[in-house]
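Blinded run. Sample ID left blank on purpose so nobody reads anything into the name before looking at the predicted structure. Input follows.
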Amino acid sequence: MSGGDLYAPQSGDDGYRVESYDLTLDYRVRTNRLEGSATIRATAAADLSAIVLDLVGLRATRARVDGAPARFSASAGKLRVVPPRPIAAGDPFAVEVVYAGAPAPRRSRWGAVGWEELTDGALVAGQPTGAPTWFPCNDRPDDRARMTMRITVDDGYTVAATGVPAATTRRGGRATTVFTSDVPTATYLAAVHVGRYRTRPLARSGVGVVPAVTVTAPPALFAAADRAFAAVPEMLRAFDGLFGPYPQEACALVVTADELEIPLEAQGLAVFGMNHLVPAAQRLIAHELAHQWFGNSVGIARWSDIWLNEGFACYAEWLWSEASGGRSADDCARSHFARLSAKPQDLLLVDPGPDDMFDDRVYKRGALALHALRGSIGDGAFFDLVRRWTREHRHGLVTTDDFRAAVLSAGGPDAAEMLSRWIDRVELPPLP
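Blinded prediction complete.
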């Protein structure tokens, strides 16, 4: 079998569906040494003579299938595990892989992605194909699974990762924290961040509809982080009203001691560089938090539909500007429409192509399509549509055609036709 996504055909295998990942990771910052074991529980979607996993830059040393030793081989970012006997379609199985190495980003058409060393720590930038740089997996956006991670680092370092953390235990100069995520998580949305951090609750969070928010940061940056994230509780309250209840088990904000080019979001978590602790970064905070609804809960089944993630997250920036007393969403839309009009009109939003899937035009045109839809059907119908979208597809997978159907139901044929003008044609339509 092979991967099913045309944008990343080298990733994933459609011969099975993963139910859970159980990872045990031991990481030493000073030497950038990762030792891990992964138990992957899955169900065969077809008859399998081998289980093919994605694993990049790390070396497997042992494999078992359903507790029995299994032969394995590695080539071109793939780990091929041969079970003692073939697995029939529909049968569950468990494959265990022990592996180690010096994790590093992988080269891709989107730049370097995956596990990345920092000055004194590490982070994961998994989107879209970086997950195999730190654990063996079925690296497909449509194969979501529960996750448990037991992460051990040297005492003095703190870990923030996808999932709800348990108490940290210490032994022999080492600290271990277990993170559990019971919501289905795409491999690219699993993350680990390690540094000389401390974790504490964000002031004024966890009141009313707002989830408890934690901040993991170097102690010297706590004051700056408190100022930068002061609006997060109100931001979450605003999004709760606009989008529906916060859909994740955790809301963790991480600040690195390094500067980062862009913030990164993962399931229930977002990481910012120290350079993002400035007033101008408020829109980036809104963007990453909005992904907890759009992308991390309501997920895409294929990368060609990336506008559903980024268009909503970008529009959330404009909605927060309006809700917080800044420029109105309409003013933001008209400003970005003018800028977009000056750029090449050669991008098809519904299928931008792998090279352009993270082009800023995907983000802004997606947001403009939503703003035009809002203007077409009115605020009440639009936000009813959005809340129904997040409720009906909570922790599920969607396509653009699913959104077309939702728009048709909410606004009728005229609204569906208006949406089509924005997403199915390369020329930029007029903004109502």
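Unblinding after everyone has recorded impressions. The CA atoms of residues 75 and 381 lie 52 Å apart.
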